[in-house]
Amino acid sequence: MNDSAARQLISRISGGHVLIAGDVMLDDFLFGDVERISPEAPVPVVRFQREEYRLGGAANVAHNVHALGAHPILVGVVGIDEAAERIAGELSKLKMSADGLVAAADRCTTRKLRVVTRRNQQVSRIDYESDAPLSAGAEEAIVERLERHLPEAAVVVVSDYLKGALSKRIVAHIVERAAQRKVPVIVDPKVPHVDFYAGATLVTPNHHEAEAVTLMRVRTSEEARAAARAFRDRTRCRSVLITRGEHGMWLLDGEGDHELPATALEVSDVTGAGDTVVATLAAALAAGATLLDAAWLANRAAGIVVGKFGAAVVTPNELLAGL
């Protein structure tokens, strides 16, 4: 895609509606200075400076969709706890609705607490989570939220982090209902759920996930090409985008193969880069882009976001500046 076409696509993104269903999380950062090692154990002593909260998981996908100028509709599960209130507060700051979130009394909100030094070096991480299957009531409530919001969506993203929000029934319901409305479904997958994604428009494994599913090595372009076809056959999806880190991306679009070289100038943190990729793909498709053009733009967005710390977002101005 040339620069003129890219500018036109970016300008069209504003206004498209994207439904994001999946594992909603809160990223909690404790920042501080390390000046000594504890006398009690061989661990650093961190002097607290500040705490910062960010939307994570499916909520980070929604945040990325919002930052690009499109309209996210977030559907997922939270607990009845302080972390859920924090997520609602962060969504409110962005003028994003929490109407699609189901509050389940039998589980906690997924929260990742990271202790980080001034130089953005992670000292430790504590995960608060329940990855147990949803109760029948919570699953029914998710289906109800999907039925309520699917008619608004031009694209659906399934953001799977294996935290319990996506059962086989829920994913099948999304794929079936989206197909009835001719709405694309993009899946950010996890290997144990590979059989859930049959019928999806596009699945976006990283190269480790592609290797695990296909039992094939992915190091060269030819290996990526073969793995993409094997992955499609295994999952029974329509198209596959393998993200390959410093090697860029490989897109299998129908019978067409496309290699997208990496664009990052500096890599600071790859956390949440997959969220940015699927959000950009969805926002671009909602704006009427072809899958190849959407992947091109997502590749550029990934190159920007890995230069930032933690789960971050990319704006249209940043995309334009890179052209």
Describe this protein with a few key phrases.
4-stranded mixed beta sheet, 9-stranded mixed beta sheet, single chain, 10 helices, UDP-N-acetylmuramoyl-L-alanine:D-glutamate ligase, alpha/beta, about 325 residues
What do you see in this structure?
The protein is an alpha/beta fold and 323 residues long. It has one domain: Ribokinase (UDP-N-acetylmuramoyl-L-alanine:D-glutamate ligase, 3-Layer(aba) Sandwich), CATH 3.40.1190. It is 36% helix and 27% strand. It is built from 10 helices and 13 strands. It has helices at 3-12, 58-67, 82-93, 136-149, 168-180, 207-214, 221-235, 273-286, 291-305, 316-321; strands at 17-22, 24-37, 44-57, 71-78, 101-103, 110-117, 122-128, 155-159, 185-188, 202-203, 239-243, 249-253, 256-260. The protein has a 9-stranded mixed β-sheet, with helices on both faces. Strands 3-2-6-7 form a 4-stranded mixed β-sheet. Helix 2 packs across helix 8 and helix 8 (273-286) runs antiparallel to helix 9. The protein starts with a helix and ends with a helix. The model has no long low-confidence stretch (mean pLDDT 94).
